[in-house]
Amino acid sequence: MYAGLKNTPCCLCGREDTHTRIEVPPRALTLMENSGPIAWRDVVGSVTLRFCADDWALVTDLAIEMDTHPLSRCNAAHVSLDLREDHEALLSATKAATDQTELEARLETRARETLETVDDPYTEERDVVEAIVVLRALADLGVRDPSEDPLEG
Ligand SMILES: [Zn+2]
């Protein structure tokens, strides 16, 4: 069983020395490379992606200049996540897979709030990039309607 990692390298190039991290919903794993063995529905909380300084600059450009995300080039084997404990999985074996929609709605709300304050001097560029990645990923996954995006229009 895939156990997950804690201290992960850059998910784009594998370099150990990372610069910035962002959080995305577990369903976004399905947009990444090598996500096959990971049961994203069993992930507890969000998934953390780390980037080295060079790749963070690239991700920032992709998000801010091109309004897109790098997930298709991210290695799912290099992300940090928590899976439900085995005993917990056994106890809830008859239950449906973990419902991810609540977490997705929470991340979406946070991302939209960030983009609504994009001109605020206290809004960090990192947060804006994370917000764009989260919203674009959820749109690609069919979880949300991109026409509701505050940056549209
Ligand atoms: Zn890198």
**Low-confidence spans:** none
> Which distinct ligands sit in these coordinates?
zinc ion
Strand content: 5-15%
Per DSSP E runs of 2 or more residues, the count of β-strands stands at: 3
Strand order of the largest sheet: 1-2-3
Q: What is the structure about, briefly put?
A:
The protein has 153 residues and is an alpha+beta fold. The protein is 34% helix and 12% strand.
Report on this structure.
The radius of gyration is 16 Å and the shape is globular. The chain has helices spanning 53-66, 86-91, 101-116, 125-140; strands spanning 20-24, 43-51, 80-83. Helix content is 34%, strand content 12%. The protein has one domain (20-142). The relative contact order is 0.21. It has 4 helices and 3 strands, in the order ββαβααα. With 153 residues, the chain is an alpha+beta fold. The protein starts with 19 loop residues before the first strand and ends in a 13-residue tail after the last helix. Residues 10, 12-13, 15, 51-52, 54-55 line the site of zinc ion (ZN).
